[in-house]
């Protein structure tokens, strides 16, 4: 029997197939947990996010369809939105700190199916470390902290109308830097 | 706040209110610049999740998470208001509350459907006897109800209704005298917007050739549904219709 792809499993989950949810969970546990952790920097909150994400999946509250792109991208976006929501509910200002580990090469042991992730991560971290501090910071605040347009404009003392441009520029620099490394951009939808 | 191009970033981050989100999605329909910028943002950030350092998930997390998912599901079926308030007082359940309500509503739908079809079709089904009358006390309004027409001169027939139930749209479809299915085959319901089909539930008929399905229509953005159609599909995973249309109607 062929292995069910993510979309197959998702369909089964919509039909309340517990086994399918369990398989999807196994497939994504480490990535989603690590991504959540990266956003909230707290193990307990990261687990809470996992719980909300899988409740949303189970209940079909968040609906996936082919026109939303790859399942994994959709799931990561849903996780990021959930994490940002959890951060906002914490009501306190998100602590901002550059994740110093971003500029390090992680040599943590990694199971086989995480090798690709690990390699991509290293290429990415190297590329990020080449950005100016302010560009690193704006990506952090915008993408990982979900800070609003208005907040970013205040934090960086930028007119509202230029915030979008700054973020784009930072992201484009990152992409360029990745391109030079012969990086992972061609897999960006993986 | 008016939906403008300036809300793109907050839309991308999912921090708009539900209302603003709907408005912005309407704006996206008409603003090519925003559509392109959104696509660009998605492309440029597609790799960023992999910046995360692989973390070791805490021991037993899978059991806890899945248990809470299924537990939460089970609780809903007999949740009363007191319990609901209790749950809301526990941490983090706030936005799950509305989901609970919607789940309860799904229980209600068959009864509503039955009431509706009784009046629509004039045929006496005995669904009412099977449903709990207490469950019919929900606020619901009928948006549109149509009779489904068979594609060929077949004996099959059916009805479809779009209902608004406390702000959620449900499509309720009921058919009679359709052919039996083989293997994994299912009857798939589609909502059509122009030529674009959207999945809207599937079912397999009983031995008498009758079937029904209630589907919560929850596609993002504004939609104007033009038609409803039912096709026979090889299994329940078709993203676009593969089989021929068995029953359909304009909306
Ligand atoms: Zn626009």
TrEMBL record, chain A:
The GO molecular function terms of this record are: DNA binding; sigma factor activity
**Where does the source fall among the domains of life?**
Bacteria
Per its UniProt record, what Gene3D superfamilies does this chain match? 1.10.1740.10, Winged helix-like DNA-binding domain superfamily/Winged helix DNA-binding domain (1.10.10.10)
Any keyword Transcription? yes
Q: Where is the RNA polymerase sigma factor 70 region 4 type domain?
A: 123-174
Mind telling me which InterPro entries this protein's record contains? RNA_pol_sigma-70-like, RNA_pol_sigma-70_dom, RNA_pol_sigma70_r2, RNA_pol_sigma70_r4_t2, RNA_pol_sigma_r2, RNA_pol_sigma_r3/r4-like, WH-like_DNA-bd_sf
Q: Which GO terms describe its biological process?
A: DNA-templated transcription initiation
Query: Residue limits of the RNA polymerase sigma-70 region domain?
Result: 24-92
Q: Which CDD domains match?
A: Sigma70_r4 (cd06171)
Assigned keywords, A-Z: Sigma factor, Transcription, Transcription regulation
Q: Which family does it belong to?
A: Belongs to the sigma-70 factor family. ECF subfamily.
This protein is called: RNA polymerase sigma70 factor
**Biological classification of the source:** Bacteria, Bacillati, Bacillota, Bacilli, Bacillales
UniProtKB/TrEMBL annotation, chain B:
Q: What residue stretches are annotated with the Anti-sigma K factor RskA C-terminal domain?
A: 110-244
Q: Tell me which UniProt keywords the record has, alphabetically.
A: Cell membrane, Membrane, Transmembrane, Transmembrane helix
Q: Which organism is it from?
A: Guptibacillus hwajinpoensis
- Where is it predominantly found? membrane
Q: Which GO terms describe its molecular function?
A: sigma factor antagonist activity
Tell me the Pfam families matching this sequence.
RskA_C, zf-HC2
Please give the name of this protein: Anti-sigma-W factor RsiW
One GO biological-process annotation of the entry reads: regulation of translation
Family membership noted in the UniProt record:
Belongs to the zinc-associated anti-sigma factor (ZAS) superfamily. Anti-sigma-W factor family.
Q: Which residues form the Putative zinc-finger domain?
A: 5-35
């Amino acid at each position: 029997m062929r292995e069910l792809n993510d979309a197959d499993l998702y369909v089964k989950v919509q039909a309340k197939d517990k086994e399918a949810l369990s398989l999807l969970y196994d497939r994504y546990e480490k990535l989603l947990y690590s991504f959540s952790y990266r956003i909230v920097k707290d193990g307990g909150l990261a687990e809470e996010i996992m719980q909300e994400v899988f409740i949303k999946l189970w209940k079909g509250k968040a609906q996936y369809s082919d026109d939303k792109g790859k399942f994994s991208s959709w799931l990561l976006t849903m996780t990021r939105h959930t994490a940002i929501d959890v951060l906002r509910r914490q009501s306190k200002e998100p602590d901002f700190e550059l994740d110093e580990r971003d500029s390090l090469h992680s040599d943590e042991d990694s199971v086989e199916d995480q090798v690709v992730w690990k390699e991509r991560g290293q290429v990415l971290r190297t590329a990020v470390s080449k950005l100016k501090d302010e560009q690193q910071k704006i990506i952090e605040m915008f993408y990982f902290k979900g800070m609003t347009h208005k907040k970013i404009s205040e934090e960086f003392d930028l007119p509202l109308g230029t915030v979008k441009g700054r973020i784009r520029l930072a992201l484009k620099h990152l992409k360029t830097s990745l391109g030079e490394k012969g990086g992972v951009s061609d897999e960006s939808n993986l | 706040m008016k939906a403008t191009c300036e809300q793109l970033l907050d839309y991308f981050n999912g921090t708009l209110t539900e209302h603003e989100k709907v408005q912005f999605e309407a704006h996206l329909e008409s603003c090519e610049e925003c559509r392109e910028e959104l696509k660009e943002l998605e492309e440029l950030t597609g790799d960023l999740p992999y910046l995360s350092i692989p973390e070791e998930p805490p021991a037993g997390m899978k059991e806890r998470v899945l248990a809470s998912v299924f537990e939460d599901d089970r609780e809903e079926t007999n949740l009363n208001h007191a319990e609901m308030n209790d749950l809301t007082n526990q941490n983090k359940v706030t936005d799950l509350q509305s989901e609970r309500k919607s789940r309860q509503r799904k229980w209600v739908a068959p009864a509503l459907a039955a009431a509706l079809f009784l009046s629509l079709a004039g045929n006496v089904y005995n669904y009412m006897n099977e449903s709990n009358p207490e469950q019919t006390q929900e606020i619901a309004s009928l948006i549109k109800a149509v009779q489904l027409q068979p594609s060929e001169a077949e004996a099959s027939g059916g009805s479809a209704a779009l209902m608004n139930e406390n702000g959620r749209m449900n499509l309720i479809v009921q058919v009679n005298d359709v052919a039996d299915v083989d293997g994994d085959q299912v009857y798939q319901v589609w909502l059509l917007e122009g030529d674009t089909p959207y999945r809207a539930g599937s079912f397999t008929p009983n031995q008498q050739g009758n079937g029904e399905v209630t589907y919560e229509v929850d596609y993002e953005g504004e939609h104007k549904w033009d038609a409803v159609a039912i096709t026979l599909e090889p299994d329940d995973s078709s993203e676009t219709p593969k089989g021929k249309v068995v029953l359909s109607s304009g909306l």
